[in-house]
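ugh ok fine here u go
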Amino acid sequence: MRLRGVLTAGFALLLSLAGGAVLAPNAGAATLADPVTTLEANPAPSDGATTLATNFQLPFPCGQAWAGNSSGSSAHQSWEIDFNRGGTANADLGDTVVAAAAGTVVISAHQGSLNGYGNLVKIDHGGGWSTYYAHLNSRSVSEGASVSQGQQIGTVGNTSRPGNGISPHLHYEVRQGTSYPANVQKAVFNGSTFGYPSQTVTSANCGGGSTNPHTPQEVCGSGYAVIDSATLGSAGTVYLLYNTANGNNCVTTIKLTSLGTATATSAYLEVQGQSRITDSGNFGYYAGPVRAAAPGKCVKWGGKAGASAYDSLFEHCG
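structure:
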């Protein structure tokens, strides 16, 4: 089995576009399941939870990089985070939101004028731990449903109380216990505590119940950003990345199952008019990277993991 090194991802994205809009419940309001205590001032949150009982991941699909900001809203009471990744106000509207960890959906509702959450999904992870996903544009899970880590639960939106205009973003919280806001804990993603007050994080939420420690950006290297991807059943995902600094394309196939076990995996990149470049073999975590410059030309790309394969047409020209 080939061992792969991890390169530093060079991903730079804009911070939250929400500004000073109300992004969390107002003091004195109540959620459907958790009473909110009226506060005279924001308390100093406890720093006791730097690791969590569950292996939480970023609430976005594998390989995506999102800028989190815990200080962009005057409504924040503790360690809540607002996430954006786009360069315009509505760029993130409709983007996929996934479960940070496996659990049971205990709230899936639009809370209307009750508070500022709008469309809210709350997941119970056991041991008193829960996660909140607020302002969703749509919800794809129902109360009582069991969800797996990495399963889609909704999409990024800007729903809130009537008249409360906010930019699309995901408001994310981790809680333990019932006494708000003291129960809001520091978020931990892939074993690392979020770098409060702001940090751009690349998702390792790759599904399958266990996590591939490698991301497309890490495999391809500094400066590369995902521009396209294709799922390979449940076995993996193949990614096409581009580096604006040097004009190179890069393809890698990231496994989602049989992690650490050498299984047949491949990735390829073909510049129109040139020979195909392929990395194929029995790998534990990923195939690739395969890189090539394609100035003024189209590329064909794809890969295979398990029994599933993907082959693009010539595309992404220029």
